From TrEMBL:
UniProt KW DNA damage keyword: no
Pfam family, one: CoA_transf_3
UniProt source species: Variovorax robiniae
Amino-acid biosynthesis among keywords: no
Name of the protein: CaiB/BaiF CoA-transferase family protein
Gene3D superfamilies found in the cross-reference section: Crotonobetainyl-coa:carnitine coa-transferase, domain 1 (3.40.50.10540), formyl-coa transferase, domain 3 (3.30.1540.10)
Keywords from the named record: Transferase
Organism lineage: Bacteria, Pseudomonadati, Pseudomonadota, Betaproteobacteria, Burkholderiales
Entry-linked InterPro entries: CoA-transferase_III_domain, CoA-Trfase_fam_III, CoA-Trfase_III_dom3_sf, CoA-Trfase_III_dom_1_sf
Length: 381
């Protein structure tokens, strides 16, 4: 197996929940040594559920391959231990409450003054300034605050996006920033600070609705399984009750769809449907026509026609369908002595492991880490 790109890099992660652990787990996948700092009771994500052989699905997912040490940072002794760990780290990540690390004496600017090659990454809810910067921030709250829920789902009661999208995106952005900072350090010899917030990450996802609302005709409505500005692009039901989503992206695809799926080549030049703009304006008539055709086709027949026309489509699957999906790549992982199949990383590399390294128990590596990173007598933060 090829060597991993981050071998020799030590990451210290004072982290909890999802965003920071997501980032540090991907650094661990790339070969970094990740030391996770937990409270004595552990990262509270350990208690989110017990779905995976008694372990939390969240914790198993984003804490693989790490070492765990439990520290009480109200204790002078444990703060000295954290100082000893920081002194040997290349990257320090934290997502505690706003100002918490500074009050403890581990603010990022201070740490970089003490250790000029250190890269620091602070993940917060709303950043470090502004009127809401001290507001508590969890994924669903940021989905609501950023407007994500206002453009998602179908008309009717509000609904959350079904995964922790703000946390995940913030973790990805932190990963990007840290990787860039590591490259920059190779050039300059100095570390730098990376700052990521869940709100900024969500706001960036909202760029298209934002620009449409600020400079165009307005933000898109909640349209369910439709696209607010492309048609046809949505869900249709076949005669056997199975549903699929199809998408037309350009006029060549539209002409082929009309000829080979609808068996109505004349529809392509109908003035109501002759361009995406007018198709979107006449969506009700367009979708009524398509529904009538699909109502006379089984799912298999519809797929045959869509394939012949080279029209993009996808089945509307359940989570159990995903488990059985022929394209799903998984990787085994040890959880409490049993094997769990976990979705593989969404990128394939030459240095991928065949098995995910298990997530650590609380303070599982504490004794070994205390011996390795011994506190110098009288050391202070």
């Amino acid at each position: 197996m090829a060597s991993k790109p981050l071998e020799g890099i030590t990451v210290l992660a004072l982290e909890q929940a999802v965003a920071a652990p997501y980032c540090s787990s991907r650094l661990a996948d790339a070969g970094a040594r990740v030391i996770k700092i937990e409270r004595a009771e552990g990262d509270f994500a350990r208690g989110y559920d017990s779905a995976v052989h008694g372990e939390s699905s969240y914790f198993v997912w984003i804490n693989r391959g790490k070492e765990s040490i439990a520290l009480d940072l109200r204790s002078e002794e444990d703060r000295a231990q954290l100082s000893a760990l920081v002194a040997s780290a290349d990257v320090f990540i934290q997502n505690l409450a706003p100002g918490a690390t500074t009050r403890l004496g581990f603010g990022s600017a201070t740490l970089r003054e003490q250790h000029p090659r250190l890269i620091t990454c602070d993940i917060s809810g709303y950043g470090e300034s502004g009127p809401l910067h001290e507001l508590k921030a969890y994924d669903l709250l940021v989905q609501a605050e950023s407007g994500l829920v206002a453009v998602s789902g179908a008309p009717g009661p509000w609904g959350r996006i079904g995964v922790s999208i703000c946390d995940i995106t913030a973790g990805m952005n932190a990963l990007i920033g840290i990787q860039q900072a590591l490259i920059q350090r190779e050039r300059t010899g100095r570390g730098s600070g990376v700052k990521v917030s869940l709100f900024d990450s969500a706001a960036e996802l909202m760029t298209v609705p934002y620009l449409q609302a600020r400079y165009g005709a307005g933000a898109p409505d909640r349209v369910g399984l439709k696209h607010p500005s492309i048609a046809p692009y949505g869900a249709f039901t076949c005669s056997d009750g199975r549903e699929l989503v199809l998408s037309i992206q350009n006029e060549r695809e539209w002409a082929s769809f009309c000829e080979r799926v609808l068996l109505r080549p004349d529809v392509a030049s109908d003035v109501r449907f002759a361009s995406n703009t007018v198709r979107t304006s006449n969506r009700a008539d367009l979708e009524s026509l398509i529904r009538d055709v699909f109502a006379g086709l089984t799912y298999a027949q519809a797929v045959d026609r869509l394939t012949e026309a080279q029209t993009a489509y996808g089945a509307i699957n359940s989570v159990h369908d995903l488990i059985q999906h022929p394209q799903l790549r998984t990787r085994p992982m040890n959880v409490r002595g049993l094997v769990a199949q976990v979705p593989a990383t969404p990128y394939a590399t030459e240095w991928d492991d065949s098995v995910f390294v298990q997530a650590p128990g609380i303070d599982e590596h504490g004794d070994a880490l205390r011996r390795e990173f011994e506190v110098v007598s009288g050391a202070s933060i």
